[in-house]
Amino acid sequence: MIKVGDKLPAGSLQEFIEVEGEGCSLGPNSFDIEKATAGKTVAIFALPGAFTPTCSAQHVPGYVAQADELKAAGVDEIWCVSVNDAFVMGAWGRDQKTAGKVRMMADGSAAFTQAVGLVFDLTAKGFGVRSQRYSMLVKDGVVKALNVEAPGKFEVSDAATLLSQAKAA
């Protein structure tokens, strides 16, 4: 499992772009993780799935509500990562009103999730391989804080916890 002080693994995540611009076409676009985090402080939070109860009722809304405070604490971008495709993440972002606050990053094949060692295997329940619930503060591609939830919990990966860590960093 990735730990504080580690560099994020090489790879890419996808984001559904609704408005063409800045070299991005309409629809799913792929972003190189190393390039996307270079010279930036990024708050990343991951969760088991789009449109799921805790994720939709608490996790994403907390980051949307505290986006301005996170940015005031030095966070350049906030990413929500889930093992869903970019179309689903785009629809969920519209539903959660994340535009301009949280980038909804798809890890459709779970490559990033596997590379950071935070897989949550729900195959027996019919959900396949998902991400564990966690948050991390990343500066220039290096993990500065990591908060991994115990299965079924939502206690340490919330926006308030990461905000206090961003303020302390």
UniProtKB/TrEMBL annotation:
<keyword id="KW-0575">Peroxidase</keyword>
<dbReference type="InterPro" id="IPR036249">
    <property type="entry name" value="Thioredoxin-like_sf"/>
</dbReference>
<dbReference type="InterPro" id="IPR037944">
    <property type="entry name" value="PRX5-like"/>
</dbReference>
<comment type="function">
    <text>Thiol-specific peroxidase that catalyzes the reduction of hydrogen peroxide and organic hydroperoxides to water and alcohols, respectively. Plays a role in cell protection against oxidative stress by detoxifying peroxides.</text>
</comment>
<keyword id="KW-0049">Antioxidant</keyword>
<dbReference type="Pfam" id="PF08534">
    <property type="entry name" value="Redoxin"/>
</dbReference>
<feature type="domain" description="Thioredoxin">
    <location>
        <begin position="2"/>
        <end position="168"/>
    </location>
</feature>
<comment type="similarity">
    <text>Belongs to the peroxiredoxin family. Prx5 subfamily.</text>
</comment>
<protein>
    <recommendedName>
        <fullName>Glutathione-dependent peroxiredoxin</fullName>
        <ecNumber>1.11.1.27</ecNumber>
    </recommendedName>
</protein>
<keyword id="KW-0560">Oxidoreductase</keyword>
<dbReference type="InterPro" id="IPR013740">
    <property type="entry name" value="Redoxin"/>
</dbReference>
<keyword id="KW-0676">Redox-active center</keyword>
<dbReference type="InterPro" id="IPR013766">
    <property type="entry name" value="Thioredoxin_domain"/>
</dbReference>
